[in-house]
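Minutes, project huddle
Topic: does the predicted pose make sense with magnesium ion bound?
PN asked that the exact inputs be recorded in the minutes so nobody has to dig through chat later. Recorded below.
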Amino acid sequence: MTDIGEEKPIQALTDLPGVGPTTAKKLEEAGFSTLEALAIASIGELVAAADIGEKTASKIIESARGSLDLSFETADVIYERRKAITRLTTGSTTLDQLFGGGVETNGIMELFGEFRTGKTQIAHQLCVSVQMPNSEGGLEAGAIYIDTEGTFRPERIVQMAERFGLDYNEILKNIEVGRAYNSDHQMVLVDQFTDRAKNKDIRLLVVDSLTSHFRAEYVGRGTLAERQQKLNKHMHTLLRLAEINNISVVVTNQVMAKPDQFFGDPTTPIGGHIVAHACTTRVYLRKSKGNRRIARVVDSPWLPESEAVFAITENGIEDA
Ligand code: ADP
Ligand code: MG
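Predicted holo structure (tokens), as shared on screen:
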């Protein structure tokens, strides 16, 4: 219903210059399904995603930006948005303190460590705490859990919910679990976030594990570049989701022990600097005595490098 002479507001991707149904489909499949995503995409990303020329890509980005009015904003607006960043509790006060008051929204937290160090347990716990009242360290919202290893356990959620006297049926209903069978599938599930979050307040997105499929599918030197490229795109999508929706994205990454190395650099997680670069907070987990675990914040721009001890119990994540 546009009058002649009036500019047509951009609503669908096909309204963008140079975007026909085929290109729109390719863009959508690559995760560029919204104007927001296109507005902050790079030319190279769009060229690769949709088989289009640089000129077309540049025009698409420009008009997406134009329709969103993204270019500059005054500091008070940024201040308001920063104030909207909230934190959710891990269930352990020492761990929350280590994270500066809990797991932040508007960014990605990477939990990396060896097998059985508690990555999946923390991810489960966050799916419960995100639903708790604000006054108890929650965000009163739901979670999406992308499970790549088949280790999501609703029974564990029930235990963790009961600890806080919550109705576990309600808690279970507010966690949407997507089982990803390969890295492409994993990326498609992430792209569905916006759709799933349309009629529902979702403030936590877990990808457990971020890297297992990538590790298994891309072996050998020849395929490393391809893997890193794809992972890079995946990380960008996750970061966009975190910032646009003000949600917490929590990803896990398993690392192999390096017996010949004491401490130095424990960071041999898959993805290397590509993953590291995109993550707001990186947490290295290691085992201690019994059910105790040690978390260490590494290379955070604003948190000191320090450690906290927590415990994994029947109740979930607790102080040691
Ligand atoms: P990963 O880092 O490999 O994802 P997990 O998060 O699965 O490791 O952590 C596994 C640890 O959690 C194990 O040491 C296990 O003993 C502990 N754990 C799992 N479920 C329970 C439970 N119900 N009660 C107590 N500890 C548990
Ligand atoms: Mg795990």
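Observations noted during the meeting:
- The radius of gyration is 21 Å.
- Confidence is low (pLDDT under 50) at residues 1-6, 261-267.
No decisions taken; revisit at the next huddle.
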